[in-house]
Amino acid sequence: MTGLPRDEVDNRCGSDVAALPRRAASQRALADVLPRLASSVVLIAVALAATFYGGYWFGLAALVAAAGILFEWQNLVGGPNVGLRIGSGSIGLALAVYFSLDGNPHWALAALVAASFLLSLAAGPDRRLWAAAGPLYAGIMLVSIAVLRSSEPFGFEAIIWLFAVVWGNDTMAYFAGRLVGGPKLWPRLSPSKTWAGTVVGVLCGALAGLAAGMALGPAPGSPWHYLALGLACALAALAGDLLESSIKRRFAVKDSSGLIPGHGGVMDRLDGFIAASVLAAAVGVSRFGVASAAAGLFSW
Q1: 74 and 168 part of one domain
Q2: Which residues pair with 264 in a beta bridge?
Q3: SS3 content of the chain, % helix, strand, coil (to 5)
Q4: Class of residue 204 by CB neighbours under 10 A (exposed 0-12, middle 13-18, buried 19+)
Q5: N or C: which end of the chain has fewer CB within 10 A?
Q6: How far apart are CA 196 and CA 230, in angstroms?
Q7: Do the Cβ atoms of 51 and 156 come closer than 8 Å?
Q8: Cis ω for the linkage preceding 153 (within 30 of 0)
Q9: Residue 18 domain-assigned?
Q10: For the whole prediction, is pTM greater than 0.85?
């Protein structure tokens, strides 16, 4: 019988055995990335379509996202009357988006405060503050993006610019963190977040703000404010991410839920967007008022 020399057979067998962990790791990485990618495509398509059509279509999409955040928040908090809290809080969110799209954010905020008060009563003495914070956390994003989208001119452009900054930050932070690795940013709070991913993500978010502002805005000769505002919103997105991580650590969970394959929950997907949208709306409103908040981002 003919065949390979024994030492060559041993070498090949050893190489195959050594390659098994690498293949298993590659398969696990692929299994992680594919659901994440598929979910991202669907979510991006829905977000862009809702933003394009605007009005109550945009409000409906934003309300669904905010209701998902409220659902996850109340389930994390636990305690009595969770279903009642989710239902009554969702009514407050619906009123908030209606008032915001109608140009009355002060009434929207009043609806959120009323909902928070009712949830605090329903949650019992041990969980009042945490339960009450849910509608405010979900609702502040709802009011911010509704005010930006409904303001004229540049409501559509403002939301697209915000998407560019946050998505640029999130996407590049994810891939840079996986490819580069290195020291962790804050292991106790966010075990998977690295310095490399954080720095690359923030810088890419700022550059995305510059590129989107130059493409969408009315002042292509003034790039510095787009870059500075993009950097500020990217840093706000990072702060929002860390805040949500601290909330999850408080309740000893890895993900806020399993609603979005590859991403975890709605809170996990929108934590940075919440903070960035609040900052963007605050800048716009402080400059040109509620009716022209979006113009406040682009006209400098």
Answers
A1: no
A2: 260
A3: 80, 5, 20
A4: buried
A5: N
A6: 19
A7: yes
A8: yes
A9: no
A10: yes
Residue range(s) defining the domain that contains residue 82: 54-150
Q: Would you give the DSSP letter of residue 184?
A: E
Which H, E and C letters describe 232-295, residue by residue?
A: HHHHHHHHHHHHHHHHHHHCCCCCCCCCECCCECHHHHHHHHHHHHHHHHHHHHHHHCCCCCCH
> Has residue 62 been placed in a domain?
yes
Check whether 10 has a pLDDT greater than 90: no
CB–CB of 168/144 below 8 Å? no
Residue with tokens 């692929």: 30
Q: Is residue 37 a part of any domain in this protein?
A: no
Helix axes 266-288, 55-77, angle to 10 degrees: 130
CA-CA distance, 44 to 36, in Å (whole number)? 12
Count the domains in the chain. 2
Residues 281 and 219 in one domain: yes
Which among 150, 173, 200 is the end of a domain?
Answer: 150
Model confidence pLDDT, tens digit, residues 159-187: 999 999 999 999 999 899 889 888 999 88
Average pLDDT over all residues of the chain? 89
Q: Would strands 184-186 and 190-194 be described as parallel, antiparallel, or unpaired?
A: antiparallel
- CA–CA separation, 155 vs 160, rounded Å? 9
Q: List, for residues 121-140, the tens digit of each pLDDT value.
A: 999 888 999 999 999 999 99
Q: What is the pLDDT of residues 73-114, one digit of tens each?
A: 999 999 999 999 999 999 999 999 999 999 999 999 999 999
Which among 135, 150, 165 is the end of a domain? 150
- 194 in a structural domain: yes
